[in-house]
Write a structure and sequence with these properties.
This protein is mostly helical. Helix content is about 60%, strand content about 5%. It has helices at about 5-15, 30-45, 45-50, 55-75, 85-95, 115-120, and strands at about 20, 25-30. Strands 1-2 form a two-stranded antiparallel sheet. Strand 1 and strand 2 form a beta hairpin. Helix 2 crosses helix 4 (about 55-75). It is flat and about 55 Å long. This is Transposase.
Length: about 120
């Protein structure tokens, strides 16, 4: 993520979360909260690796920041499907894959990939 995109996201989040008090003398600013949350969502690391704060503080931070991100970005990212959006998606899918009337029907979860068991065993480790 670029620094400008991060700053735009911070500007969107600031009105909803100003500061998160910690038990230390300082307080956590929105940029730190957001960077910790984004790093957790992107990597799935353990809370202790993310920031030098206790587990309960980081879990509260991430929970609060995720709910704020959902409130702020829901209308911008998840658009309500309309007929025009579906027609545009269908047209792009047909142009790219040359498969008419098949938009959003092919998903990797529906295709079963089976490999012969001996194919796996035949290679020495």
């Amino acid at each position: 993520m670029s620094s400008t995109t991060f700053e735009e996201l911070v500007c969107l989040v600031v009105p909803h979360v100003k500061r998160f008090p910690s038990f230390r003398k300082d307080t956590l600013v929105v940029g730190e909260i957001l960077s910790c949350t984004l790093r957790y969502l992107a990597s799935g690391d353990v809370f202790g690796v993310l920031f030098p704060y206790c587990h309960s503080t980081i879990s509260k931070l991430i929970c609060e920041c995720c709910s704020v991100l959902w409130q702020v970005l829901e209308k911008k990212v998840l658009l309500t499907p309309s007929v025009l959006n579906w027609k545009k998606t269908v047209r792009e899918f047909e142009d790219k894959w040359n498969l008419p009337h098949c938009v959003a029907t092919i998903d990797g979860k529906h295709i079963v990939h089976q490999v012969n068991y001996f194919y796996f065993i035949s290679y020495p480790t």
